[in-house]
TrEMBL record:
GO molecular function: phospholipid scramblase activity
Lineage: Bacteria, Pseudomonadati, Myxococcota, Myxococcia, Myxococcales
Protein name, as recorded: Scramblase
Region (Disordered): 1-54
InterPro entries: Scramblase (IPR005552), Tubby-like_C (IPR025659)
Superkingdom, taxonomy of origin: Bacteria
CC annotations in GO: plasma membrane
Length: 284
């Protein structure tokens, strides 16, 4: 007698598994879902108009929230030791604060190093790229100024790298004149600097003043021996478009690079009118 067990009837076995979906592993009941706060939210890059805050990331929008609502900004240039002692033009750095004194943005020139300092100090073909960043290091705005012979210009890039607008200096015999234009060339706003007020720049949209950029007096020693400038950006109540406010900040940066970069040429019309404008500012 054989001890082998009889084979099972193979007709009852199901050998064709091609029509079945693979079995999914069971999720333990104790497994926790990923917290919503840690889920990465798409930033919306490339959506809507360039610079539109509705498509910014949550972190970036929260960082610039104060700039959207404040009636004024203060932009202060941060000096470095070589600039104070030797007068060398080191890379430009600024801090931008709201009306409560809270820092909203840091602005820093991209070019670094000794070679960049020499080009900035001596070269007539100096190009500048200014990055406006939040405290967390997120780029919110970029101002690119190529070198030019007579009339300066700058490209304004939104936080996602798209071209938002351009600033173009216009020729004028009296005062100063810049236009803020779309990438297609249509004028968005006009910047006018009165002849006898070389520290004051008024920004108009449809012939209505929407903002004023003023350079403030920083003291005799600082004005004489360094290029550390302080500006105030005052917004009119009707200036509620955050895209326009970003352009006003870009205008302030270009004004400093164009008219107040070198100590020997700090005013467009001479040091006498500088003092006159400072007195008029404090009188106001």
């Amino acid at each position: 007698m054989s001890d082998k067990r009889p084979l099972a009837d193979t007709t009852e076995l199901e050998l064709d598994w091609r029509g079945r979906a693979p079995r999914q592993p069971e999720v333990p009941s104790s497994a926790a879902l990923e917290p919503l706060s840690e889920v990465e939210v798409p930033s919306g890059a490339g959506k809507g108009l360039p610079g539109d805050p509705r498509h910014m990331s949550i972190e970036l929008r929260q960082s610039v929230q104060g700039m959207m609502e404040t009636p004024a900004l203060r932009m202060r240039q941060m000096r470095e030791g070589l600039e104070i002692i030797f007068g060398a033009q080191t890379r430009n750095r600024y801090e931008v604060c709201d009306d409560t004194g809270r820092v909203a943005l840091y602005v820093e020139e991209e070019a670094r190093g000794f070679g960049a300092m020499l080009r900035r100090t001596f070269s007539p073909f100096y190009k500048a790229r200014m990055e406006c960043m939040t405290l967390g290091g997120i780029v919110a705005l970029v101002v690119e100024r190529p070198w030019s012979i007579l009339l300066t210009k700058a490209d304004i890039l939104a936080w996602d790298g798209r071209l938002m607008a351009r600033i173009q200096q216009r020729f004028t015999l009296l005062g100063r004149h810049l236009d803020i234009v779309t990438p297609g060339g249509a004028v968005i706003a006009t910047v006018k600097g009165p002849l006898l007020r070389p520290w004051t720049f008024r920004i108009f949209q449809n012939d209505v003043e929407v903002a004023v950029v003023r350079k403030r007096w920083s003291g005799f020693l600082q004005e004489s021996f360094s290029a550390a400038d302080t500006f105030t950006l005052d917004f009119q109540p009707q200036c509620t478009d955050f895209r326009l406010r970003q352009l006003v900040l870009a205008v302030a940066l270009l004004i400093d690079l164009t008219y107040f970069e070198n100590n020997s040429h700090r005013a467009a019309l001479g040091p006498g009118l500088d003092l006159f404008d400072a007195l008029m500012f404090w009188k106001k």
